[in-house]
Amino acid sequence: QPTFDEYIILLLALAPHVQPGLLDATVKPFLKDSQNFPEIGGTRDNENRV
Prior knowledge:
By secondary structure, the chain is mostly helical. Helices cover 42% and strands 0% of the residues. It has two helices and no strands.
């Protein structure tokens, strides 16, 4: 029987296949500016893109 954490990981892995914009819509309000790109896993600071 999978644990609760394993269920969460499974749901996060399947979410983009069921509703592609769900994770972006969830994360976007927490970003300080529009230069951060959660869909490619990066943020931008003064010197470079991390």
